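Whiteboard transcription, Tuesday session. T.W. wrote the structure tokens on the left side:
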């Protein structure tokens, strides 16, 4: 029996559909770019575990190239038995796929296999990078990449958007090199990547934070609890989504973050509010996750409920009104991403409050899980008041004896 495995984007829209075949471990999917006989080309991929027990998912051929489910099945058996090298290790000397086919392989064999969020990358492939899909990787020259950046800049796009587009090309080409599927020139040796200024400036005032948490608790208990942890413990959304019941230590009052952005585990200290909220969290026998998605898996992005709560509190309003055709008005929203309140603003608020309270860079870097203090220096301007207070204390200590005796010691 043929079954379908749908991979969905965080917003619920279908991204890709992988169909099983009559052969175990052999699947197919339709290409979003390639065509064959007037229809989307069909790719054949296999799932298996290598000699080290690691799961592998690889695309091994296309219907347009003569691949079939039966052939894929035989290849899978031979690879598992060790009698044949994997097809991607037998590629011809050419090793120069089109960017479109390289993206297809990268998307299905890397991003989906690694459970990566590909929503923004898919939008780039279907938008600004569409003209690159027919080019072979060797045809992606520094000149063509520079033209892409110039064109996006002329359209008024921010440096961050340009960096994401160019970065996707670089990631795909790098993965093809790692897999031994491309050994041609690397255009990024001589390309200067755009350096976006995406440093978030907006943090919440205590009254704003309380208002937002109250609105979230009214709308969604789960989103409220995740927001509370981010604000009080400084955790990223992905770190919160990965928390399990075993990561909560009520005796020590800590949360164990085993999957941080820099790959290093750390402990976060719970406030009384977080400890109480987690203590009242009901057990879910179907999953170990504290905050599972509706399907029981790990959440990939914050709930839309968070954005609606932010809008309800007016935290992204400019203070101006926009006139609508029907005669009514609607609040104008801030457009600069650095000024907008998003879920990550809660972590930024946590760091900002600590900096203003006098926490030093090294301690702050440890609390935030930064591998160096370079990222933490963005909060240095908020530490000035505490530094001035330290200078005043030094002056008071220096003059304390002379004030008491009337003379310096």
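and on the right, the sequence the group agreed on:
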């Amino acid at each position: 029996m043929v079954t379908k495995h749908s991979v969905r984007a965080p917003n619920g829209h279908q991204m890709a559909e992988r169909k099983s075949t009559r052969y175990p471990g052999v699947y197919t999917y339709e290409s979003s770019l390639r065509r064959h006989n007037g229809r989307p080309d069909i790719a054949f991929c296999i799932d298996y575990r290598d000699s080290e027990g690691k799961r592998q998912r690889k695309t091994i051929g296309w219907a347009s190239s003569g691949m079939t489910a039966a052939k894929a099945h035989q290849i899978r058996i031979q690879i598992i038995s060790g009698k044949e090298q994997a097809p991607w290790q037998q590629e011809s000397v050419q090793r120069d796929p089109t960017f479109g086919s390289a993206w297809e392989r990268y998307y299905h064999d890397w991003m989906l296999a690694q459970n990566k969020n590909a929503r923004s990358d898919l939008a780039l492939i279907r938008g600004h990078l569409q003209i690159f899909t027919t080019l072979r990787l060797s045809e992606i020259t520094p000149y063509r990449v520079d033209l892409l950046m110039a064109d996006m800049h002329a359209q008024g796009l921010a440096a961050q958007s340009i960096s994401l587009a160019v970065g996707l090309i670089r990631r795909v080409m790098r993965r093809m090199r790692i897999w031994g599927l491309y050994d041609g020139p690397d255009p990024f040796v001589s390309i200067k990547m755009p350096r976006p200024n995406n440093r978030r400036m907006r943090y919440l005032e205590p009254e704003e934070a309380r208002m937002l948490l109250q609105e979230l608790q009214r709308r969604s208990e789960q989103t409220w609890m995740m927001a509370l942890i981010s604000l009080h413990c400084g955790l990223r959304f992905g770190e919160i989504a990965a928390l399990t019941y075993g990561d909560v230590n009520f005796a020590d009052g800590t949360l164990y973050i085993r999957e941080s952005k820099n790959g290093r585990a750390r402990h976060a200290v719970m406030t009384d509010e977080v400890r109480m909220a987690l203590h009242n969290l009901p057990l879910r026998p179907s999953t170990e996750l504290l905050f599972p998605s509706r399907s029981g898996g790990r959440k990939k992005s914050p709930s839309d409920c968070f954005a609606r709560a932010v809008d309800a509190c007016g935290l992204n309003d400019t203070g101006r009104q926009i006139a609508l055709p029907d005669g009514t008005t609607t609040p104008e929203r801030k457009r600069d991403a650095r000024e907008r309140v998003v879920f990550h603003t809660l972590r930024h608020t946590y760091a900002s409050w600590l900096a203003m309270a006098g926490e030093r860079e090294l301690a702050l870097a440890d609390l935030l899980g930064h591998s160096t203090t370079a990222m933490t220096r963005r909060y240095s301007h908020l530490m000035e008041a505490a530094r001035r207070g330290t200078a005043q204390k030094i002056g008071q200590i220096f003059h304390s004896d002379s004030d008491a005796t009337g003379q310096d010691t």
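Someone added at the bottom: The two ends are 92 Å apart (CA to CA).
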